[in-house]
Amino acid sequence: MDIENRISDIIRDRIVTDHNGIHIDAATPLLSAGLSLDSVAVLELIMEIEADFGVEFTDSDLSVDLFRTVGSLAAAVREKRTAAGIQ
Fold first, then answer.
1. pLDDT digit string (tens) for 40-51?
2. pTM metric for this prediction
3. What is the CATH number of the domain that holds 25?
């Protein structure tokens, strides 16, 4: 499973739908320096990721570092899946 690509698809298809054709990869910044996701978009993204990947983020998980790039978010999803025994 390519988590980075799935997260990129979620962002492109469900979060920033007004940016058709936007290139999103593991190095794409999610906050101010890149896609400039606001707090509502970040919450929507977390809810979509939790539903798609079967993981759950706690309030203490949510930090600027988590949302630095698509890759950092994907790494956290990978860790959550491993901890939960999801392959």
1. 999 999 999 999
2. 0.91
3. 1.10.1200.10
